[in-house]
Prior knowledge:
Elements: H1 2-9, H2 12-17, H3 25-39, H4 47-60, H5 72-78
Amino acid sequence: xxxxQAVLRQGGLMAVLSFLDFFQTGVQRVxxxxxxxxxxxxxxxxxxxVQAAVPILTNILQYEVRPCLFLPSLCMFLCR
Length: 80
């Protein structure tokens, strides 16, 4: 879990999600699954890293083909 938090604090979430729109749906699903994994067990010192990605994560819910439909953990994270 510490490794995930370290990756998150170093901008991993933004790195995974930044160019999501340019990839096929299958790649988008993997990227969103990776983002959801990074967001599990968030600590208070990771909030800033996640806040930067909230607009991208919210935008995912607007996609016609929603990669996050397969990832309830991401959807629950967005509803917090």
